[in-house]
Amino acid sequence: MTIGASTKRLEDKRFLQGRGSYVDDLQLPGMLHSVVLRSPYAHAKIIKIETDYAVSMPGIIDILTFADLEEVTTIPIRLNPYGSLEPFLQYPLAHKRVRYVGDPVALIIANNRYQAEDALDHINILYEPLPTSIQVQGTVSIPLYDEATDNIASNFIMKKGDVDKAFNSADHITEMEFTSGRHSGVPLETRGLIASHEESTNKLKVWGPTKVTHFNRNVLAGMLGLEEHLIEMIEPDVGGGFGVRGEFYPEDFLIPYASRKLKRPIKWIEDRLENLVACNHSREQTYLMKMALKKDGTILGIKVLILNDQGAYIRTHGIIVPELSAAIFPGPYHIPNYHCEVRSILTNKTPAGTYRAPGRYECNSSRERLLDKAAAEIELDPVKLRFKNLIKPENMPYKVGTHSLGEDIVYDTGDYPYALQEVLKISNYTHSQPATTSISTKKTGYGIACFVEKTGLGPFEGARATMNSSGNITISTGAANVGQGLETTLAQIASSVFQLSPESITVLHGDTNLIPYGVGSFASRATVMAGSAVFYASKKLLDKIMILASTMLNTSINKLQIDNGYVFMDEEPNKRLTFSEIAQQAHPSNCPMNIEPGLDFTYYFKCDKMTYAHGATVIKVEVDTQTCAITPQKVWIVYDVGKAINPQMVKGQIEGGVVQGLGGALLEEFKYDQSGQLISGSFIDYLLPTAAETPILISKRIERSNSPLNPLKVKGSGECGIAGIGGALANAVANALGDFDDQINSLPITPEKIWQTLYANSTTNPSNN
């Protein structure tokens, strides 16, 4: 059995040998190149666009503006459409008005990239600047849309119990405001696309879409007025996804549209500056929180107002990120009374979307910080406060009383106290500050955070299992490989069914022609949904193999066994058949009359409930009160993802998520000035964690809560590592600073913020302390 084995990743060999094939590696005969002209203004009316001179420049084939697309609709929502959001959807090119720096205004197509870039400066656009709206609170917002009287795109409430009664009966009420800074996933490979239209067949091939290829095909077909079967979406190798890559962006329409118009293949590759200004941003939310408690630390209820900075448009995610924030805010704790209001507010910034653990990184950080503040106010150890309120395993399945992604939030299984107990044990956690001399400027702190992570989103995923005449098995899936090791995972699952080595299984993915229906890879769903579909499709194929073998060996199926490509009789092992021999028997000319020919089975695994992984994190930090530097020294994380198909790959997912979480907690932030200009739009100002900033990581997998919702007993793992990092880091810094701990109320925690906390209102010179 290969399920549970730390098999080496099958994908890695070709990458290590330089044989990966990314979208920019593709070259097609007669291919043109394109660039996008983007708005330099955060908010302005478009008065006039003149392209005559630019289109006459050497090598320029065409220039598209909205005037060329007047019959084109806005880009639709993928997750949980809300009718009221329709006015705020984005056109592929700006229509009458630009609403953020980077808004696409024109597409230039040329013989090569250099010629296209040269033409950018020769398109004359007359703008009429408009007032900008940058903040979600504290100022009067200028409406971004004529159809709206304000910039609140959506306002909704989630609630359970009687919150007012809980607060009226409370012994203590803790209040806190916490903000998660604006940042995003930054894949090594930027976005890119190639489209090629075959005029003779009216078929369109598109290379580059990832994550949700079948959905993107559906959207493109609708916007182009084509039947779906005329479009083939192909996913090449991908240099990172993290939720921001693979959604349907304006360029995903523009390049195929231009290819059909010009009847030539066209390539578009995003440069890094574009990537930082045009690809989805995420995370910017402010939480205004109140918690009602008894004297002994029992939580009676929570009130939350979430202000979600949506950016300039509603993109394909709709408002799913703040919906997840509201739904998962209770986390692993029993919160009997809960009231959460969410306002998604439009601003003149890059539109926001999902990024690894969307909504959960933000709400976990806020909630865990609130818990530490409450513990301090009632003079209770924060560990004891958590243990007192954690949901117990005997309460599973546990109805949270909230909802998201079209379903009620019901935790399937989990032993949350055990995970916390284990992380405390391996970290030797202590909340009290270590002794330091009075002249020492280096303060050490520990912070903890607990989390629940939703995974395995439905409603379905498909897989196809086939055996060719040589006895080779191929698995095809509608899921996408965005760097998470999908090929290895699915090969291990199939190989466990067929009793073969994973290396002998071929896994195909990322092509809409492989399987009629697919959902994709996001929400930590690939192993749960695609893996289960592979398991069942493989079982159906194996059943057919055994039926044919029993006929060929003239015995009953229950007397047969399989191993390493052979089917043999249990009592007479020498009577055996190779998979190849059986496959040839499945040919229509050889197959018995009472058996359907062929060895090709497709299975769609359906599940209307998500699975919930969980864990706990401890972080040790050092804060230098002289330099204001924050240094994470050690991270411990305990996690339970149910059955692990490949423990080593799960470990890699967890530890990679930890580092990304530290980036958002300490370094990464998209900053805007009051005119709406992005002032951290390069890697000079937008800082990413490197090996130098990475602390010692100690991760421990526990397996006490296998999921009953799928045959593999698995839960997703891709987002567990990042989910609790912001809260644990903030609590650790607050613990280190002692008297100033209630001022740690936003991420990222930068040296500048530490200085403001310690010295902004003081005449003391830091160098003397």
Question: Can you offer a commentary on this structure?
Answer:
With 769 residues, the protein is α+β, with helices and mostly antiparallel strands. The protein folds into 3 domains: 12-130 and 190-238 and 245-278, Aldehyde Oxidoreductase, domain 3 (Alpha-Beta Complex), CATH 3.90.1170.50; 359-456 and 612-768, Aldehyde oxidase/xanthine dehydrogenase, molybdopterin binding domain (Aldehyde Oxidoreductase, domain 4, 2-Layer Sandwich); 460-606, Aldehyde oxidase/xanthine dehydrogenase, molybdopterin binding domain (Aldehyde Oxidoreductase, domain 4, 2-Layer Sandwich). Helix content is 25%, strand content 26%.
What distinguishing features does this structure have?
25% helix, Aldehyde Oxidoreductase, domain 3, 26% strand, Aldehyde Oxidoreductase, domain 4, alpha+beta
Summarize the structure.
The protein has 769 residues and is α+β, with helices and mostly antiparallel strands.
- Give the helix/strand class: alpha+beta
User: Can you count the beta strands?
Assistant: 29
**Overall radius of gyration:** 28 Å
Q: Fill in the CATH topology of the largest domain.
A: Aldehyde Oxidoreductase, domain 4
Shape: globular
